[in-house]
Design a protein that fits this description.
Structural class: alpha+beta
Largest sheet: 4 strands, mixed
Number of helices: 7
Order of helices and strands: EHEEHEEEHHHHEEEHEE
Protein name: Methyltransferase type 11 domain-containing protein
Oligomer: single chain
Radius of gyration: 20 Å
Keywords: Methyltransferase, Transferase
Strand order of the largest sheet: 3-4-11-10
Shape: globular
GO molecular function: S-adenosylmethionine-dependent methyltransferase activity; tRNA (5-carboxymethyluridine(34)-5-O)-methyltransferase activity; tRNA binding
Length: about 240
């Protein structure tokens, strides 16, 4: 039988309401017996882990669940949103110029990265203009570490950093008698997000070409069957040996 899992209890509850089996768990520690799955699917999950070690651990956990000969499909967001002269659906859906997208100011007033994210060692973290002007000051290295920021992405545009925060609006449906509220996130600046609040910043590590495949190939227990780009995502199909 098929079973799904997610870190979000609300999403797991929605699956239950639709008569699907789902439970809440951590993708790095799935409470399922090793070697018991014919196939696993991980869609838009691994790019939320903040270090290469945790991303590899998530792939290892998928491999652990598979029986020998079992297969897994992994999708992660790609740095290359335009690939082989083709723009991804994500870029194509950018609003008309008259509907200016929301841009988030990431100046000095924002909370330190250590207050927002589990890992503050990103090599791609951005600094405020004031810090960049202080590059020649004594003790700048310590100042850069203390005040480092992750860049906040402008939705429906190309990526300029692999490690970033993407603004999302919380969208809640109207609750009717006997029904639960389906709460979802939609990209800030999208049509669905207009006049909605608040905005949440979600961490993403967008993968460069070959990065996901290389991580999978570093594991002795799996074989990469296929690696490809699909609508702004890097995808791998792997087989348990």
């Amino acid at each position: 039988s098929d079973v799904g899992c997610d870190r979000s209890k609300n999403l797991a509850d929605i699956c239950g309401e639709k008569n699907f089996q789902a439970f809440v768990c951590d993708a790095l520690s799935v409470p399922i017996r090793s070697g018991s799955c014919d196939a696993c699917i991980s869609i838009a999950v691994i790019h939320h882990f903040s270090t290469a070690e945790r991303r590899l651990a998530a792939i290892c956990e998928l491999a652990r669940l598979l029986r020998p000969g079992g297969t897994a499909l992994i999708y992660v967001w790609a740095m290359e949103q335009e690939y082989k002269n083709q723009k991804s659906k994500y870029l194509k859906e950018k609003n008309n110029s008259k509907d200016k997208e929301e841009e988030i100011n990431i100046g000095r007033g924002q909370r330190p990265l250590s207050d927002q994210m589990p890992d503050s060692s990103s090599q791609d973290s951005a600094c405020s203009d004031g810090l960049l002007n202080d590059l020649n000051d004594e003790g700048c290295a310590a100042k850069l570490v203390a005040d480092s920021r992750l860049p906040v992405h402008t939705n429906r545009t190309s990526f300029h950093s692999q490690d970033l925060l993407v603004p999302w609006h919380l969208k809640g449906g109207t609750k009717k008698k006997g029904e639960s509220i389906d709460t979802v996130l939609c990209p800030a600046g999208s049509k669905e997000s207009q006049e909605l609040s608040p905005v949440f910043h979600r961490y993403y590590h967008v993968f460069c070409e070959g990065e996901l495949e290389a991580a999978c190939r570093s594991l002795d227990c799996v074989r990469v069957q296929k690696s490809y780009h699909d609508q702004g995502n890097w995808c791998v199909v792997l087989e348990k040996l």
